[in-house]
Specification:
The chain is α+β, with helices and mostly antiparallel strands and 178 residues long. It has helices spanning 7-17, 22-37, 56-64, 109-118, 121-124, 168-174; strands spanning 46-50, 73-75, 82-87, 92-98, 125-130, 143-145, 152-154, 159-161, 164-166. The protein folds into 2 domains: 7-130, 60s Ribosomal Protein L30, Chain: A (2-Layer Sandwich), CATH 3.30.1330; 143-174, 2-Layer Sandwich (Wheat Germ Agglutinin (Isolectin 2), domain 1), CATH 3.30.60. Strands 2-1-3-4-5 form a 5-stranded mixed β-sheet. It has a two-stranded antiparallel sheet with strand order 6-7.
């Protein structure tokens, strides 16, 4: 099944990202899968946990509305082409893992990209249903001033050292075990 997102949507996603590549194609297709499996246009509480920081994450941001700033796009640096989408309102979701061997033998980047964009979603991803939210909702925490650099820092990122509140970079400057 050829990608159902439409040429204009694909082109706008490429423009958002800055170039076309197989990684972006993976993000386009997993976003398409999310649209198919979850009614993401009406989901007010959609969350995506990505286990990679590759190009495809830009497609997810652009197409699903999940973003780091809103706290509903979470990056877990596991180095896997895996993505969990969850609708908190509907209390359902799924995890999709890209089959890395798909078109891997194809050395030509353009042919690999074309094969990804034209493949059936079931041939690209192994999926499993998820019935528990993958992460807690984002919380707004108070800010505390770092005693060294004087910059305001989210309280969960402050480190106590020698009786002082330190942001992580200032803490790293004085802590010798890191």
């Amino acid at each position: 099944m050829v990608c159902s997102l439409g040429k204009e949507v694909v082109e706008k996603t490429i423009e958002f990202h800055g170039h076309s590549c197989p990684g972006l194609a993976i993000g386009l297709r997993v976003s398409e899968l999310a649209m198919e499996k979850l009614d993401i246009r009406n989901a007010k509480e959609l969350v995506c946990v990505t286990e990679t920081d590759m190009c495809g994450v830009d497609a997810i941001q652009f197409l699903t509305g999940c973003s780091f700033g809103k706290g509903n796009l979470i990056h877990k640096d596991y180095g896997k082409s895996a993505f969990t989408f969850y609708d908190r309102d509907a209390q359902k979701g799924f995890r999709a893992v890209f089959m890395n061997d798909f078109a891997r033998d194809e050395q030509d980047r353009e042919i690999r990209l074309k094969r990804i964009m034209e493949a059936d979603l079931a041939d690209l991803f192994v999926t499993e249903e998820v019935d528990v939210p993958p992460v807690r909702p984002a919380r707004i925490l108070k800010s505390i001033q770092c005693d060294a650099c004087r910059e305001m820092t989210m309280e969960s990122r402050i480190r106590m050292f020698d009786g002082k509140n330190l942001c992580i970079p200032c803490f790293h400057e004085v802590e010798q075990k890191i």
